[in-house]
Amino acid sequence: MDLLASESSSSSRILTARHVSAEIRHPEVNNAVNTTSALLCHSYSVLPDFGSYYTALNTYALVTWICGFFVLAALCILYGVTLRSALKHWPKTKVNLAVVLAVYPIVAAAGLLTLIVPRARILSEAIAQETVMVAMYHLYFMIIAECGGPDQLISRSSGSLMETRVLPCCCWPCCLLPRPQVQKKCLTRLRYLILQMPIVQALIYIIVLVLWAEDVELYRNNFILIQPFIAVSILSGIWGMMICIRAAEAIGTRPRARFLALQLVLLIVKLQYGIAKALPELFQFSCIVALNPSVFVHMIQNMIMMAEMLLLSLWAWRLYSVQPEKSTEKVPQVVIAVLEDSLHSIDLKKDIEKSYKNERI
C-alpha cells in the first residue's frame, strides 16, 4: 500500500494510509460504555442481565411490566369466574377442570417472567409447554367422564371401531393403521399415549436446562438434535387425543371445541417461540435500543402471547360456562338401542316364565 511519510520535530516517522490524515484526531471508541452497547446489540449469543436490560428500556420497561401485571390479574379473575361457572356442569371432574383452565394464566405468567428477566426465557418456555402437556392429560379424563366413564363409552359404542386415521396420522402410510374395537384395553393404551407427553417433555426440558446452564453455545448447537424427540412425543399424544375425541363424538358428545381451545395454546407456545428464535438468525435487525435483537424479538413475542392467552381465556369462559353440547343425531339412536334391549329382555323374561309354568302343569 502506498504510504505517506511525515516527519516530526523529533525526527520520528509516522506512517499513515493515503486516505487518513495524520493531523486529525479520532475519538476513542474503546471505552466501556460503547463496547458494552455494541456487545449487547450485535452479539446474538449474549442475553443481558437485569440491570443492563432495565437500563436499555428505562421507562418502557415499567410500562410493559405494568401492562403485563394487569393482563395477568385479568386472567386470574377470569379463571376464578370460569371455574365457578364450569363446576356446575362438571361436578365430577373438579381437579381436571381446574388444571385445564389454569393453562391460560400460567402460560401468561411464564411470558411475564421472560418480560422481566430475559435470562429466564428457557425456563419460562419449559413451564409453559409442560403446563399444556399436563392439561392435555386432564382433558382426556374430562372427555371420558363426559361420556359417562370408560364402561359407558364402551357399552354405548356397541362394538364400533376406533377411528385411527385422524390427524396427524391421516395420510399414507398411516392409512394402513388397524382400527380396533372400542374396548377397555384400547382406552388404556390411549391414556398411556397421552400420558407420555408430560413425562417425555419434562425429561427433555431438564436436559435442555442443563445444557443451557452449562453453556449457551452448547445448548444452541445441540437443540436441533432434540427437536425430533419433542415432535414425535407431541404428535403421538395429539393423535391419541384425536382418536379419543372421535370415539366420544360417535356417541353424541362434542368435546372438539374445548380441545381446540387447548390445542391453540400449544401452537402458540411452540410455533411462536420457534419463530422468535429463528427471526434474529434469519434476518439482520437494526438496533432500536442497546439490546440484543433476539431479546427485543422475544419481548414482543411474549407481549403478543399474553394478549392471546387473554382472548383464549375469554373463549374458554364461553365454552365451559354452558352445559356440554350433545349431538341430536347420535343421542336418539342410543336411546332407541337401549329401549329395544329393554323390550327384548322383558319379552325374554315372559317366555321363560311361561315355559316354567307349562313344565309345572
From TrEMBL:
GO terms for cellular component: membrane. Its main location: membrane. It is a multi-pass membrane protein. The keyword Zinc-finger does not apply. Keywords: Membrane, Transmembrane, Transmembrane helix. It is found in: Membrane. InterPro entries: Ostalpha/TMEM184C (IPR005178). It holds the Pfam family Solute_trans_a. The keyword Cell wall biogenesis/degradation does not apply. The chain crosses the membrane at residues 60-83, 95-117, 137-155, 192-213, 225-245, 257-275, 295-317. This is Organic solute transporter alpha-like protein.
